[in-house]
Amino acid sequence: MEVLQTLYHELISFLGIGQLLEMYKTGDYKALLTFNGVLTAVSPVIPFLLLLEIGRALVYKRFKVEDYKMPFFIFVLNRFIGRFISIAAIAFCIGLFEKLALFHTTFTWYWLIYGYIVWEFSHFIYHYLGHKVRIFWCLHSTHHAPQNMNLFVSHAHFFLEGPYADVIRTTICILAGVNPPLLFFIMFIDGFWGAFIHVGENLLPDGRLGFLNKIILTPSAHRVHHARNPLYMDTNFCNLLNIWDKVFGTFQYEKKEVAIEYGITRQLNPNNLLDVYFGEFYYLWKDIRKAPGIKNKFLYIIMPPGWSHTGDHKTANIVKAAYQQEEQQKAQQQAAEQTAVLPLETSQAV
After folding, report:
1. Which of 160, 179, 155, 149 minimizes the C-alpha distance to 64?
2. Are both 230 and 282 inside the same structural domain?
3. Are 302 and 320 within one domain?
4. Based on the number of CB atoms within 10 Å of its own CB, is 77 exposed (0-12), middle (13-18) or buried (19 or more)?
5. Whole-model pTM?
6. What is the spatial distance between Cα 248 and Cα 131, in angstroms, rounded to a whole number?
7. What sections of the protein cross the membrane (predicted)?
8. Which ranges in 82-179 belong to alpha helices (H)?
């Protein structure tokens, strides 16, 4: 009986309808007129979209258990081992750094704009490091392991990635003067949009969202981020505003002629929880063990994924540069062939 009750509470928590059910039981809906009540009403939207996504895939016979199985297992695992760590990390950073803030903002619309730009910058920093520092990639790679995009992928994270991300983001925002109530509101927006942009092709085939694709990070842009194609690797690190990706040159639109291939570049068993969850740590440990000297061992920890003490680097930058060079050579070859054909056609015409 206790097991069933626990499962019931977990389901209610996942769907985000606990407070709504409480309102229904008491008959008091006045809370919906408050700010917290609005947040309560919005919370079930993403779980509802997830169920809609699964339902649509079933109707059109595109549902595959393996697309959802591993993210679901990771979600369940994280509920047991990392439930309160992020909350503690946020509280710790606020208590430690709030007194050191450059200035203090208030909960107004203009400070919200400022706060969100700062938040997006802090998110860019955390996310960029997650791709460019090997030990942080070990934390982040679990999220990139799924080989299909759907809303459940937003729950596929190594349990320590949340605290790592929140320490960086909270510290930067608090030091920049974003006050805690404003920060929590921004976190809510970010969490909602950050989940939504993982919506899969089963529910939203074209994730560009029209004109919004040029203004914000859309599902299309985030699908690019999850791709292992050389053109798409290490791009679109922001979450909602694409300002910092454009500032730092990491923004990339989805190209129709370059179909997205989801997942990570190493050989991976997508149905093996240990490989998906701990695989990058295992391969990092193997590289450290075989590396000569303390310096090289340390470099494997802090250098980008693909770095090698032998000089045979296969980092994202090198792979992308090789791809771009190859594409440029193809374009030049095609141009030369077309140029060679033109005189022939002219002589035939004469």
Report:
1. 149
2. yes
3. no
4. middle
5. 0.86
6. 15
7. 31-52, 72-97, 109-129
8. 85-97, 109-132, 134-144, 161-175
pLDDT for 6: 62
Contacts of 301 by beta carbon, 8 Å cutoff, 6+ apart? 134, 135, 284, 288
54 pLDDT tier (thresholds 50, 70, 90): confident
Cβ atoms 204, 219 nearer than 8 A? yes
Identify residue 128 by its one-letter amino acid code: Y
> 268: which residues sit within 8 A by CB, 6+ positions away?
145, 275, 276, 279
Whether 65 shows a pLDDT value over 60: the answer reads yes
**Which tokens sit at 239?**
């979450």
For the segment 283-294, what is each residue's pLDDT rounded down to a tens digit? 999 999 999 999
Could you identify the residue written with the tokens 């002589």? 347
Residue 134 placed within a domain: yes
Mean pLDDT, range 182-193, rounded to an integer: 95
Any bridge partners for residue 241, and if so which? 216
What CA–CA distance (Å, rounded) separates 222 from 209? 12
Query: What confidence category does residue 35 fall into, taking pLDDT thresholds of 50, 70 and 90?
Result: low
**What token pair was written down for 5?**
């009750």
Residue 44 lies in a domain: no
CB 217 within 8 A of CB 195: no
- Looking at 238-315, list the stretches that DSSP marks H as alpha helix, in order from N- to C-terminal side: 243-247, 273-290, 293-302
Q: Per-residue pLDDT tens for 144-175?
A: 999 999 999 999 999 999 999 999 999 999 99
Do 319 and 199 lie in one domain? The reply is no
> What are the tokens at 23?
């309102």
Judgement on whether residues 319 and 302 belong to the same structural domain of the protein: no
- Distance between CA atoms of residues 213 and 199, nearest Å: 15
- Tell me, what DSSP letter sits at residue 143? H
Q: What is the dihedral of CA 34, 36, 37, 42, to 10 degrees?
A: 130
Phi and psi at 170, nearest 5°, equal -65, -45
**Which tokens sit at 138?**
């070990």
Q: What is the pLDDT of residue 177?
A: 96
Structural domain span for residue 128 = 67-308
Output phi, psi for 57, to 5 deg: -65, -35
Question: How many domains is the chain built from?
Answer: 2
Residue 217 and residue 341 in one domain: no
Q: Does a structural domain hold residue 19?
A: no
